[in-house]
C-alpha cells in the first residue's frame, strides 16, 4: 500500500527548476507565493533569499560579468523615473 505524504513546507505542488535557468526563478517565485498564502513571514523571507540566489546564478550563466549590483543600479534609475513621473 503506497504511503500518502502530507505537505512539507509548501501546501501546493511546485515544479523543481534547474539551477541557473528561468525555471529555477519560477520555482522560487511559486514558493514565495505559497509562503505568502500561508501567512508565514519568515518563510517568505527565506524564499526571497532563495529567489535572490536563483537570480544571481541565472546572471552568472546567461549574462557573465553582470552582477546583482548592476541590476540594483538599473532599479534605482527606474525608481527615480517613476518618482519623477516620467521616463
Structure description:
The chain is 64% helix and 0% strand. The chain has 87 residues and is mostly helical. The chain has one domain (22-84). It is flat, with a radius of gyration of 17 Å. The N and C termini lie far apart (62 Å). The mean pLDDT is 93.
What fraction, in percent, of the residue positions are helical?
A: 55-70%
What's the SSE pattern?
Answer: HHH
User: For the report, how would you describe the main beta sheet?
Assistant: none
Shape: flat
How many domains, as an integer?
1
Unreliable residue runs: none
Average pLDDT: 93
Number of strands: 0
Total number of helical segments? 3
Radius of gyration: 17 Å
Fraction in beta strands: under 5%
Amino- and carboxy-terminal Cα gap: 62 Å
Q: Briefly note the structural class of the backbone.
A: mainly alpha
Keywords summarizing the entry:
flat; about 65% helix; about 90 residues
Short structural summary:
This protein has helices spanning 22-38, 41-62, 68-84.
Element layout with pairings:
Elements: H1 22-38, H2 41-62, H3 68-84
Helix pairs in contact: 1-2
